[in-house]
Amino acid sequence: MLPCVSLVKAQNSCVGRPDGSHVNDFTACDGFFTCVRGMAVPGRCPAGFYFHEEKQKCDFPWNVVCLLCVDTEDGGGEGSGDEPGPGQNPDGPMSFPIQGECQRYTLCINGRGFLQECGIGLQFNPVARSCDLEENVRCVPKICPNHINPNVATFVPHPQDCAKYYVCLFGDVVGDGPQRCAGDLLFNPATGWCDLPQNVDCGNKTPPPPIAECRPDEVHYIPSMDSCSKHYICFQGTKIGPVQCATGLIFDIVTMTCQIESDRTECILDGGSMLMDQFVF
């Protein structure tokens, strides 16, 4: 039997709704109610599916933003227990975190959830149940977001560097970290591929320096513009070299290391590939 509070809230949501329509449960991602003469009949999606109210059907979790008007074990933190945050009326609207999200949250009014988002530079504080300064929350966004299909390899832009991206599969990052586009190409979020700089809007991100220029990092390598088998060592912005790769190796601008030449390596003199064919799944 469902708690009485859920039935009351569901019945309120069904008022004025046509018979046979469905509304979110807002206490479970896979829960919904079917409206019959203003009354709510509870239902559940099959295992592994969430209810999508807009589509009026059960759907894959990555297609649904789950809005809950109750705290979850891993989402409530110190603010769990359905208690209002400072300055919130216990009988009025209440805000709840969304699992895996830093800026978006659920605003609940009379048991019904509404998707909201904090302003620029703010994150949702689950303790205060309100938007707060980032330094007071320190929420770390998931690299592989909830809204992508975890069963399909997906390229996700790096949050700060226009030339880098992540490969996500099964909900996790493939490899040791971000990958870098070849040559001077930048990652284009609109197409999901590396692209020419003039086709990419970096937004608030700072475009990286050209691949053959030293960055102010401690130590890294850059290619020689004259030879596929040579590279330079950069130390605190100063270029040292050139350095010759071992016999039979080329300096690969995908990994920025000397490698055996193959269809997965690329020399700066090749002009840069616009396809991410260095990954095979």
From TrEMBL:
<keyword id="KW-1015">Disulfide bond</keyword>
<keyword id="KW-0147">Chitin-binding</keyword>
<dbReference type="Pfam" id="PF01607">
    <property type="entry name" value="CBM_14"/>
</dbReference>
<keyword id="KW-0325">Glycoprotein</keyword>
<dbReference type="InterPro" id="IPR051940">
    <property type="entry name" value="Chitin_bind-dev_reg"/>
</dbReference>
<keyword id="KW-0677">Repeat</keyword>
<dbReference type="InterPro" id="IPR036508">
    <property type="entry name" value="Chitin-bd_dom_sf"/>
</dbReference>
<feature type="domain" description="Chitin-binding type-2">
    <location>
        <begin position="11"/>
        <end position="68"/>
    </location>
</feature>
<keyword id="KW-0732">Signal</keyword>
<feature type="domain" description="Chitin-binding type-2">
    <location>
        <begin position="141"/>
        <end position="204"/>
    </location>
</feature>
<feature type="domain" description="Chitin-binding type-2">
    <location>
        <begin position="211"/>
        <end position="269"/>
    </location>
</feature>
<protein>
    <recommendedName>
        <fullName>Chitin-binding type-2 domain-containing protein</fullName>
    </recommendedName>
</protein>
<feature type="domain" description="Chitin-binding type-2">
    <location>
        <begin position="82"/>
        <end position="139"/>
    </location>
</feature>
<dbReference type="GO" id="GO:0005576">
    <property type="term" value="C:extracellular region"/>
</dbReference>
<dbReference type="GO" id="GO:0008061">
    <property type="term" value="F:chitin binding"/>
</dbReference>
<dbReference type="InterPro" id="IPR002557">
    <property type="entry name" value="Chitin-bd_dom"/>
</dbReference>
